[in-house]
Design goal:
193 residues; mainly alpha; 11 helices
């Protein structure tokens, strides 16, 4: 199949599954050379670029994937988080707001909160993190994020409750930096009179 993008796409997916994003990137680029409008290859390339720390290039590939029809909430979520990581927080917020209309999930609200935090819009961040915690009461990340905002606002009792919940939910530190959260909890406790 010398004129087909599918073998290169399949190879790229295999490389991604085996945690080889640099090799995946090359395979997806060959797929795109064969078929420039292959939305799946653009999405795969975007993922590979994101995983290798090439955020600006990943954004372009996510946008191409979307342009050519790969408009899944997950694709747009990754576009938004990559936008935020490259400092384009306002663009990320717009994209996340759109994704939330289709797929209201805790991790999307956490990403929205993170974008608001980067813009120093604590009230909006707090609202987003609270929605994440309401949607997924087992999200240690949501409670850890809530704790950080409450601490910043000097709401130490609320921060303590949120940090305690985060530690209880993720006592092994799989989704949060457990030592950092415990440190913040100790600091919070020292400020409660």
């Amino acid at each position: 199949m010398p004129n087909s993008a599918l073998p290169f796409y399949g190879l790229g997916i295999t490389y991604l599954a085996n945690k080889q994003p640099a090799d995946a990137q090359k395979a997806f680029q060959k797929a795109i050379q064969t078929d420039q409008k292959n939305a799946m290859a653009h999405r795969g390339l975007a993922d590979a670029l994101r995983l290798t720390g090439k955020g600006k290039e990943a954004i372009n590939s996510y946008k191409a994937a979307i342009q050519f029809g790969y408009r899944t909430p997950e694709t747009r979520y990754y576009l938004a988080t990559t936008l935020s990581k490259t400092g384009k927080h306002q663009d990320a917020i717009k994209e996340l707001d759109e994704v939330l209309k289709e797929a209201p999930k805790a991790e999307i609200y956490v990403a929205l909160g993170n974008a608001y935090q980067a813009l120093k819009r604590d009230v909006s961040a707090l609202e987003a993190y609270q929605k994440a915690a309401d949607l997924d009461p087992n999200s240690a990340v949501a409670f850890d994020s809530l704790g950080n905002v409450y601490f910043k606002q000097r709401e130490y009792v609320k921060a303590k409750d949120a940090f305690e919940k985060a530690v209880a939910l993720d006592s092994e530190g799989k989704s949060i930096d457990l030592e950092e959260t415990k440190k913040k909890l100790r600091e919070t406790n020292s400020r409660i009179k």
